[in-house]
Amino acid sequence: MRFLPEAVVLLVALQSACAAAGPAKGPPARASERDPGRPEPSELTLPRIVVSQDETATIDELYAHAEQRLLGGAPGEAAVLFVRVFELDPDGPRAAEALYRAAEALDAQGEVMPAAQRLEQLIRRYPDNPLARHALADAVRVYAVADQWRRAGEAARLLMARYDDLAPVENILARGGLALAEVEAGQLDAAAVHVSQGRTVLESLNLDGAGRLPKDTAPLFFALGEIRRLRAEHIRFVPYPPDFLDRLERRCQLLLDAQSAYSDVMRAYDAHWSAKAGYRVGELYHRLHSDLLRIPAPAAADTDARRQLFEGAMRLRYAILLQKARSMMDHTLAMAQRTGEQSAWVVRAEQASLAIARDIRTEQEAIDRLPYSRAELQAALDDLARRRSP
Questions:
Q1: Is residue 273 within 8 Å of residue 261, measured between CB atoms?
Q2: How many Cβ atoms from other residues are within 10 Å of residue 288's Cβ?
């Protein structure tokens, strides 16, 4: 839509007003002679009019048209119109609301970063508008979804600095944003503090039990899962450590703890966060399997036969990890197909599923090439377990 220059818009508005007023007829009437139902001259306001080659509309009419497009399932067109309302009348009463609605429309269309930009524009230009508070909270959500965790932390920090009366769920959301930012910075202990504070608020609402969780708790529990995942992956097995069993036990416990946190993310029933969490759980098992198979044969495996026996026993023993990883990726992809989720995390899950399937085939082929049957390998594992049981 091509709009005429601002001077023409003003001229048309003035001409319309003058035509409506009619020719002047002497001095204005005294206050006692005026129609009591007619407003005083100071109460008259001219509506902001937009003129194009196709139509003439007031700002309110343009805003209403944008609302209709959004409700009619055309968020892209609605976003363009909302932005136009703001640009035509940036100091008008509809400006901040138009920016906020434009961000909503963009987010509904999946344009996450453009939505965040409109929210930031509102926050900077109209800091005292009541919508600025909602825009800050939405910015935390949007940046967390977009994996812009540093920016999510900045928005959360500003939200907490400006408003000391945050609702519990706003507080939990802000703590989640701060925790994600600390995770991205590698400050896991600082991230854990924010998670603990957010969970304290959650527990005060009696929402930390079983059942569905508020959507805004997803960033908090995802940050908790990331903390535990990263701590687990810091435990390595090469070179072979003398306390291997203790390390393996700690790694497995952290894996299960991380899986528990990611499961809490899924309790928020948000497809995007569930896809992230599901991918991470599958990745936990896949990576543990890879790390374990890198362990070199022990010194006692001093012949080819013993080294082959060690390799086969390791592959057979830890094949279950690949099965768990594939099951989690398949579950995640089925959820994404059911809900229509199409984020980058779904693409990651698709790629990981293919990689895991290749690893499973590789495992099976490697075991088949060994001079031992699966029964013999299992017997060797059982014998080893009996020796260690005391």
A1: no
A2: 23
244-293: pLDDT as tens digits: 999 999 999 999 999 999 999 999 999 999 999 999 999 999 999 999 99
Q: Which are the contacts of 283, defined by CB distance < 8 A and separation ≥ 6? A: 325, 352
User: What is the token pair recorded at 266?
Assistant: 């899924």
pLDDT, mean over the chain = 87
CATH fold for domain 48-129: 1.25.40
Q: Mind spelling out the 3-state secondary structure of the chain?
A: CCECCHHHHHHHHHHHHHHHHCCCCCCCCCHHHCCCCCCCHHHCCCCCEEEECCCEEEHHHHHHHHHHHHHCCCHHHHHHHHHHHHHHCCCCCCHHHHHHHHHHHHHHCCCHHHHHHHHHHHHHHCCCCCHHHHHHHHHHHHHHHCCCHHHHHHHHHHHHHHCCCCCHHHHHHHHHHHHHHHHHCCCHHHHHHHHHHHHHHHHHCCCCCCCCCCHHHHHHHHHHHHHHHHHHHCCCCCCCCCCHHHHHHHHHHHHHHHHHHHHHHHCCCCHHHHHHHHHHHHHHHHHHHHHHHCCCCCCCCCCHHHHHHHHHHHHHHHHHHHHHHHHHHHHHHHHHHHHCCCCHHHHHHHHHHHHHHHHHHHHHHHHHHCCCCHHHHHHHHHHHHHHHCC
What's the token pair of residue 325?
């990883």
- The answer to whether the beta carbons of residues 284 and 258 sit under 8 Å apart is yes
Q: Where are the domains of the chain?
A: 48-129, 270-390
Give the Å distances, CA to CA, from 91 to 59, 88, 216, 309: 12, 9, 32, 78
Residue-wise pLDDT tens digits, 77-129? 999 999 999 999 999 999 999 999 999 999 999 899 999 999 999 999 999 99
CA 388 – CA 171 distance, rounded (Å): 49
* Cβ atoms of residues 85 and 98 within 8 Å: yes
Which is nearest to 50 in space by CA: 102, 91, 104, 87?
Answer: 87
pTM of the shown model: 0.83
Cis check for the bond before 239: say yes or no (omega within 30 of 0): yes
